Amino acid sequence: MSTKTQIAGVELHSYIFNASGPKDVTFDELTIIADSHAGGVVIKTCTLEPREGNEEPRYCDVPLGSINSMGLPNLGLKAYIDMVPTLRARTKKPIIASLAGMKPDDFPVLTKAFIDSDVDLIELNFSCPNLKGKPQIGYDFEMTEQLLKDLFALGGTKPIGIKLPPYFDPAHWDAAAAIFKKFPIAFLTCINSVGNTLIIDADTETPLIKPKGGFGGLGGEYIKPVALANVRAFSQMLGDRMAIIGVGGIKTGRDAFEFLLCGADAVQVGTIFMQEGAGCFERIDRELAEILKKKGYKNIAAAKGKLKIL
Ligand code: RRO
Questions:
Q1: 193 lines ligand 1 (CB under 6 A)
Q2: Average pLDDT by stretches of 10, the chain with 310 residues
Q3: Alpha-carbon 30 to chain mean position
Q4: Contact residues for 117 (Cβ-Cβ < 8 A; gap 6+)
Q5: What is the pLDDT of residue 192?
Q6: Is 59 inside any structural domain?
Q7: Which of 23, 45, 162 for a ligand 1 pocket mutation test, highest count of atoms within 8 Å of Cβ?
Q8: Is residue 87 part of a domain?
Q9: What confidence score (pLDDT) does residue 271 get?
């Protein structure tokens, strides 16, 4: 059974692909994803200039997930724009650019460059939690609306979506959705890591990571319930006008199926891709297909949003 799906009319042969993260920075890393079973290839969030990122140690796996404060290490806009044609020649899969400005004026420059490139989708990262002294844009609704105004004024037909931070209160879902409705947003990616969490080692009496005194973005199993709630909430409010991509703690086909029931059009994986490597895309896809078959769902669309109410 196929788990093919689409986002804003762009076809993905599989429901599962990578989240922007530490293993999609270089051309070699992106080639591994391109050659894998992943439904698409997301490029690490890109800034105008190359960045080294934060000091090490800045990523740590833990039994129920991961914590990171990578600090946006990436090769910079020019390198990724130059890379797109080679990636395009290598794979027919959708290529998804992710971008973040270090200041508001960077966003239109980055967005325009990718609008004019051969990528299929653009993901605006409004939710990096690890930039020292810079709050997450998605928690500032005024700034979010202003940036969306500026970016959608650029025109063009390339589908543009937003990667959101987790929201924890219905008032925030309502406020965010009221803004998103004003723009032709193609998709929402819910959620980025849960920002500014702290994991410590009682043996060494230190945090696991060094930047920001150990505060970093939490990923993996810990955050799946938060991610499911965000997918469900935005799917109910906006699912008829934009696609929803789920991300947060997906390790198995069963996890992916839970996101599908909550209304996700596709899912991304971050922590499990770091831990298991590119084989995770085929495994999770196979497990999801088996569940769909066993339950008698003919395809992804048949199960999408079908969470039953108690
Ligand atoms: O690079 C990072 O520190 C990072 C980014 Br841009 C992001 O969006 N989410 C995350 O957990 N880490």
A1: yes
A2: 97 98 98 98 98 98 98 98 98 98 98 98 98 96 98 97 98 98 98 98 98 98 98 98 98 99 99 98 98 98 98
A3: 15
A4: 81, 84, 97
A5: 98
A6: no
A7: 45
A8: yes
A9: 98
Region class of 298: left (phi > 0), else alpha (psi between -120 and 50), else beta: alpha
**Packing angle between helix 224-238 and helix 253-261, nearest 10 degrees?**
30
Place of tokens 């991509």: 245
Q: Is 267's C-beta closer than 6 angstroms to any atom of ligand 1?
A: no
Please tell me whether the peptide bond between 199 and the residue prior to it is cis, using omega within 30 degrees of 0.
no
Q: What pLDDT sits at residue 276?
A: 98
Query: What are φ and ψ of residue 87, in 5° steps?
Result: -65, -40
Q: Which residues are catalytic?
A: 128
Query: What pLDDT was estimated at residue 133?
Result: 94
CA distance linking residue 155 with residue 152, whole number of Å: 6
Q: Which residue range is the domain that position 162 belongs to? A: 5-53+72-194+220-303
- Determine the Cα–Cα distance for residues 88 and 118; give it in Å rounded to an integer: 7
- Total domain count, the chain: 1
Give residue-wise pLDDT tens across range 8-57: 999 999 999 999 999 999 999 999 999 999 999 999 999 999 999 999 99
Q: Is residue 66 part of a domain?
A: no
**Residue 65 forms part of a structural domain:** no
Q: Which residue has the tokens 């997301």?
A: 42
- Which has the closest alpha carbon to 190: 167, 208, 210, 206? 167
The response to whether residue 217 sits with its C-beta less than 6 Å from ligand 1 reads yes
**What token pair was written down for 43?**
């490029």
- CATH number of the CATH domain containing 178: 3.20.20.70
CA 160 to chain CA centroid, nearest Å: 13
Whole-number pLDDT of residue 121: 98
SS3 at position 51: strand
Give the per-residue pLDDT at 213.
98
